[in-house]
Design goal:
AF1862-like_dom_sf, antiviral defense, 81% helix
Length: 156
């Protein structure tokens, strides 16, 4: 990976973290911090797709899909309230992953949002197809998210 790509990953991590930080209340931020610490390791232990399935199952998309798509569509200045539940922290971590994939043009944002709303199975199939590329490229970004969460989110 080139130095320019690394810088882009760090910049994206800061942008995504800022959006997530502003979308969660204090309790959910603490939970997100745990997700950021655990999920990056889980992706490289269990694999991207099994971990993604787990995150999706915990994110409560059946009830909160509109919040996730709104966050993906929002400019960085607009705040979306994801809430304070465990689901919110998983949804925030799912957002972090999907944000990277769309902003780095690994997957088209319009396709991503459309499939989140209308056909998640087709989206999962596409992510499965791209998983070798995703796994190879996303680690530095997720590590940056982890470090930001550890540095900026206090736990009681």
């Amino acid at each position: 990976m080139t130095e320019v790509q690394e810088e882009k990953d760090y910049k994206l991590a800061i942008e995504a973290f800022n959006l997530v930080y502003n979308a969660l209340d204090k309790k959910a931020r603490e939970k997100f911090r745990s997700r950021a610490r655990d999920m990056v390791e889980e992706i490289y232990t269990s694999g991207f797709i099994p971990t993604l399935f787990y995150i999706i199952s915990k994110a409560g998309l059946e009830n909160n899909n509109d919040k996730l798509t709104a966050l993906l569509n929002s400019p960085s200045s607009k705040s979306i309230d994801l809430g304070s539940s465990d689901e919110a922290s998983y949804m925030a971590y799912l957002f972090v992953i999907l944000y990277y994939l769309s902003e780095r043009n690994i997957i088209n944002k319009e396709f991503l949002i459309n499939k989140l709303k209308n056909n998640r199975l087709e989206l999962i199939d596409k992510l499965y197809e791209l998983s070798p590329i995703i796994s190879a490229r996303i680690k530095r970004y997720l590590m940056a998210i982890k470090r930001l969460a550890e540095a900026l989110i206090e736990v009681r």
